[in-house]
Amino acid sequence: MTGTIVFGSLIGAMFVGQQYVQNVMGHTTLQAGLSALPMAATTILISPVAAIMIARLGTRTTLSAGIVVVLAGTLLLFTWRADSSYLPVGLADAVIGIGIGMAGTPASRSIVASVPERRAGMGSGMMDLQRDLGAAIMQSLVGAVLTVQYGASVDRQLAAAPAAARDEVTEQTASVLRRSLGGARVLAEQYPTYADAILQGAREAFGTGSAWGVAVAAALVAVGFVVALVRFPHRARELRLEADYAREQDA
Asked: What are the extents of the domains in the chain?
């Protein structure tokens, strides 16, 4: 369960972050992709360190610490602004990568270490499942929240507009605006006189939706921390379980 949440948070953060960097900050697709490289780099660097921590501190402590770091990195997404430099983007991605390296390693190890060698394929399948299921759940939840809050923000902006401006906005136009930021771009091209206002409002709405999506992701990561802290075996019990698995394997 914790592995599902941890790996899902990675996908959720990238789902929101990549769109934010492109749609709100105005970077190209290539620049947005390159901006996430610190996440991959820190994950690779920290994973071997996590293995040492598991040997010395146990899986539960390493996993819990990693989830806390993932939560900290997720909360750093709230510091992003439309006019932000690359620093807050790279910092948030790097911190999330550290957390993934610390938490993902014990989450995967706990599965592999709990099955005999003859069922290694089953353990590998469970590792894939926790990643894929976590990604599907988190991306669906974050995407749904982002979409709903984006539309709600557009409605609030339309309601706050002067009466003369509201009268010019048809229901069909409002529907296109609510649907996506891409739809707002199409309308901006069709109505160049109002292009700046349309795009500015859409970016603000997307920022609002992204913030809500990140809040949901952070809440789920916090749930993962509680689960790891309360339900995962302590170090002594973990060693006993591993000894039982070893005896079963020898038999």
From this structure: 2-250
CATH number of 2-250: 1.20.1250.20
Spell out the long-range contacts of 177-181 with Cβ–Cβ below 8 A and sequence spacing 24 or more. 177/201, 177/202, 178/150, 178/151, 178/154, 179/151, 180/147, 180/150, 181/23, 181/150, 181/205, 181/206
Q: Is 161 exposed, middle or buried (0-12, 13-18, 19+ CB in 10 A)?
A: middle
- The per-residue b/e assignment along 182-209, b for 16 or more CB within 10 angstroms, e otherwise, is ebbeebbeeeeeeeeebbebbbbbbbbb
Give the C-alpha separation, 130 to 4, whole Å.
Answer: 4
Residues 41-95 have pLDDT tens digits of: 999 999 999 999 998 998 899 999 999 999 999 999 888 888 888 888 899 999 9
Amino acid, single-letter form, for residue 7 = F
Q: Which residues, 6+ apart, have CB-to-CB distance to 87 below 8 Å?
A: none
Say what the pTM is: 0.84
